[in-house]
Amino acid sequence: MIESYLAIPPLLGVLGLLVALGIFLVMNSFPEGDEKVKKIGDQIHLGAMTFMKTEYTYLSLFALVVIILVYLSLGQDTALAVLAGALSSSIAGWIGMYSATKANVRTATAASQSGAESALSVAFYGGSIMGLCVASLGLIGLGSLYYILSGDAHSIEGFAMGASIVALFSRVGGGIYTKSADVGADLVGKIEAGIPEDDPRNPGVIADNVGDNVGDIAGMGSDIFESYCGSMVACIAIASTYAITSDFAQADKEGMMFLPLALASIGLIASIIGIVIVRLFSKSSPANAMRWGTMGAPLIFIIAAYYLTNFLVESNPLPGSDGLDVWLAVVCGSVGGIAIGLITEYYTGSSPVIKIAEAGQTGPATVMITGLSVGMQSVVLPIACIILIIFISTQLTGLYGVGIAAVGMLSTVGITMAIDAYGPVADNAGGIAEMAGMPSETRVITDELDEQGNTTAAIGKGFAIGAAALAALAIISAFVETVSANRAEPLELILSNPTVLIGIFIGGAIPFLIASITMTAVGDAAFEMINEIRRQFKEIPGLLEGNAEPDTEKCVDIATSAALKKMLLPGIIAVSAPPLVGLGIGAEALGGLLAGGLLVCVLMALFMANAGGAWDNAKKYIEKGNLGGKGTDTHSAAVVGDTVGDPFKDTSGPSMNILINVMAIVSLVIAPLL
Amino acid sequence: MIESYLAIPPLLGVLGLLVALGIFLVMNSFPEGDEKVKKIGDQIHLGAMTFMKTEYTYLSLFALVVIILVYLSLGQDTALAVLAGALSSSIAGWIGMYSATKANVRTATAASQSGAESALSVAFYGGSIMGLCVASLGLIGLGSLYYILSGDAHSIEGFAMGASIVALFSRVGGGIYTKSADVGADLVGKIEAGIPEDDPRNPGVIADNVGDNVGDIAGMGSDIFESYCGSMVACIAIASTYAITSDFAQADKEGMMFLPLALASIGLIASIIGIVIVRLFSKSSPANAMRWGTMGAPLIFIIAAYYLTNFLVESNPLPGSDGLDVWLAVVCGSVGGIAIGLITEYYTGSSPVIKIAEAGQTGPATVMITGLSVGMQSVVLPIACIILIIFISTQLTGLYGVGIAAVGMLSTVGITMAIDAYGPVADNAGGIAEMAGMPSETRVITDELDEQGNTTAAIGKGFAIGAAALAALAIISAFVETVSANRAEPLELILSNPTVLIGIFIGGAIPFLIASITMTAVGDAAFEMINEIRRQFKEIPGLLEGNAEPDTEKCVDIATSAALKKMLLPGIIAVSAPPLVGLGIGAEALGGLLAGGLLVCVLMALFMANAGGAWDNAKKYIEKGNLGGKGTDTHSAAVVGDTVGDPFKDTSGPSMNILINVMAIVSLVIAPLL
């Protein structure tokens, strides 16, 4: 009976990919625009693909070393799983980027030729392809592996490890890329040369637009992919450690291990329905279409999950709980994710933003103080949500509950990611419209789309942090269970054990170190970019007058090589810390490291993402004409906040999510060695 | 035999106070200066005393509520101990402030009349009185209580709780006071009106100088006092939970409980010797005098501790360790404290500072990014020191080792605090010299003293954080032991217990909340100050021309009432969180709260203190003429960093130390109720 289930997730994944292909064909049939637009689009597309190719080269070498080490220490199946995870994530990122950089020009052209509704459709198609790829490739990869390895939990864990290594490189590398290009292009172009944002004379502007794709689409996608697979793997691992008793048969255990894949499968269907809803409603009211889609998909998922969970868990009861309890944990995660997103929206979009903007009236220092203060305050409510989710889900079904809540939060990743990825596509379209000299009406449309995209992106970031936190916690729980299952006596991480304490302090210091390294990396890379743009303005005759073309490729190259060079050190620290501490000091210290790392990563991720988002929007609030608008001292002060916020929200902050997940999954994978 | 020991610590404390009185009389015999200087000195003195009086009024009410609650729930002895702790800390702070505000005018006058050597002496005398008061009153209070209560550990814990409540108010209130006055006076005076720092026409300048005393002398003193007593109390509490066995007699246990008081006693003597060393060497080389004093005192202490520990612990062996082990733990703490101080000196005084200053060439945003990055990076090595101390000391003597290492670090607090408090006295003297229009040669001398003071203050801050971290950890250990001793089964804080996890997240979020509240408080209070100073410049005719006097008292009042209003909320959160979580959710959650709080408080304290110190010194580096010097854009950019750094290093950062200690000690005191 169970056997026939096992094929469903990968098959549904294939269906999801086919839907994505269909959407791609529809999107690709939209007109690309005139020669000028086409050329700009090609430059961005090529820049993004060049980055991906170079990144994947570095990544392959890094992954190869990891896979060999895994093969030697943990055997062939785990090594295969790492490879499968890395490949699935890479393919999802590649397809997503490819499509997004096809969708951006078509969005700009649609905005100028057919108006807002059509532009929204194209941009949303672009995002949907990424969303469906993430969800589908997760199901295909993890589902097939589960099928092939017949649910061998230990080996399957490698899949999440492979995905997390790709995420680390994409998120950190992408984050450094996008911000060095952004800061460099803005500083020389807008401030020194006094030309507008996205002006085609600026040599850094293509790199800036490439960066949006690299960071916000490929980086974000791999981040979510990793949490998505990590939470499923954690559930499988936790369920696999349950001992068989007279009440709890082997078949029951297998069913529980299968539940996350089953939930993700109906989540994919719900996401596809959600995408259809957005499509249907966008004709009458584009503004509400997204809201209906984002709310509709989880609702459908929750209802379907009720029947599925009761069906699967009725015959597979957890000790002390029934199907309803498991379903409630799923609901808890799903609702909690939305709640964290909405809180993020408040802190990066409402009165705190106005407070920061007003602080600009007394200069950049008060903008900084207010923004930092808002960021620090903004951690409290999301942490409260996480606490509630932990409390409720563990009360319902023990530590498995945390994992299944994370799966609940992430199952509708198809639609969530679609809406996240839509933002940068719209943002790019705006840039292309500016560079191609499209009429201002077009820019108004793309600006509106972009603004909406910024809000959904803020919600997406909050959601990603919440999901990553729960996924990491579930993986850590699985780590403890796995180590315990392999030992004579269970692994007890007692806080008053000095070894655990030492681990906690190590785990707390690592995020600060990684944040520091990535902040510095953006500064250094931006510095190279600034020098190159300055050089071109000086040495290329007629460039500023618009009579010569900038060498945009050079800037793309600088951002690419800087990003890839600088991401190696954080990558090595993240991947090597768990084996060093685990094998060097012991499993207790490693458990402490994960706990300290989890706490500090979640706090820093929320702090940095929300402070950065709030600064960004405070600047935009002033640019809309409030408090004197552009060109005032208040605006200059807000620009300082935004510049500091850039690496906060797009480089260092997001790398915190990945950091804890990488450390957690590497620990889980090496658990049999401890 | 033990009985006769018990009277030594309080008697030595009285001796220490007599030495402090002697130093006061010598210091007070230095000439106060002419009428103008005297008047300025009086204004600062009165402002400081007014603040202290108002603060102590609020504090008394708050303490009264706490004492009544403690009396009702834990009995008379504990309530008495809380009162004694609060009184001892208050008296130390009051005497220290009184003396410091007498020493500042005399330092300025000595600098103008007798030169550098004499000025150094007076300033150092001023600091020494504070140092000796902290050390002596700790011994008198805690020693007498130990004598009176015959070593009843539970009741004695109240002493540290009383001290920590005073510290909370002094540090947070003082921090808000000093920075609101500083930011307000600088912003309107230096930037808007274009008059120099400490110009007598600026109505906020007296409040600014009062603030240095309030924050850096009284605040810092109460902070160190609290760690000093907290670490001793923790050792007493941990030792008191040891069960009597055939190998371990009642007398042994009492000896171990007495050891921290004995170590602090010889630490006081070593400090007095250190002060004499500084005095002797300051004639030949004032620059080296302090170094010899700071290094000499711990050295003497370590040697004396060897004999003392071996004597006491030979007859009171800890299970599995001998006297040498305990002594090594003491050495480990003493050396570790110096190491953390030196690391702090590096990050706030060497190449990282130059890097921040150079980042000023590309504007305030890069100053911010570089400073934040330096601050984040600066946590790594101090955390490594703390890890080493934990590892070594617990290997040597178990969790008692962490407590006794903290005692080792803090025993020579007399000299450490003397050198810390010397800085603000010198700083004040510089301000007075400027206000009184003393010749520029005088200003050169006071500037030199001030600069040296800044370095020692940076070391002192690092030291304070390290000491607070260890003290808190020791108190937390005592909490776990105490709860376990009161229960049928021991309190096991297992990380994979969801209740513990929830506590960890609560504990991690509280420091962010407090940091946010205190950052905002500085901003709000500074805003009131700015408006008042602007009003006076506008409404008092002839003020800017130097023909009329500013209403400095009004500014002092504003800073006082703002600071006291704003410190209530953080105080209430810190004191009420442990009983709410402990009684509401349980001891496991409270244990988690303390662990999460400890980790995040230490990280944030180091991050904020070091980033703030580095920004401050980057500005000073430019002001010395580097990178173009004052008046350049680079300087303006560095000023932005310094302004953000002010609340970081003097308000929010230092409140982190106290926060974790308050939460820990309140938890320990309420442990019998759980």
Précis, in short:
By secondary structure, chain A is an all-alpha fold.
Describe the protein's topology:
2 copies of one chain form a homodimer.
Chain A (H helix, E strand, L loop, with lengths): L1 H5 L1 H21 L6 H40 L1 H38 L2 H33 L4 H41 L11 H36 L9 H32 L4 H29 L8 H25 L3 H9 L4 H14 L2 H18 L1 H12 L2 H23 L4 H46 L12 H42 L12 H33 L2 H37 L9 H38 L4
Protein architecture, described:
The structure is a homodimer of 674-residue chains. By secondary structure, chain A is an all-alpha fold. The first copy, chain A, has one domain (2-673). Chain A has 20 helices and no strands. In chain A, helix 8 (250-281) runs antiparallel to helix 9 (286-314), helix 9 packs antiparallel against helix 10 and helix 12 (364-377) packs across helix 19 (587-623). Chain A is globular. The mean pLDDT of chain A is 89.
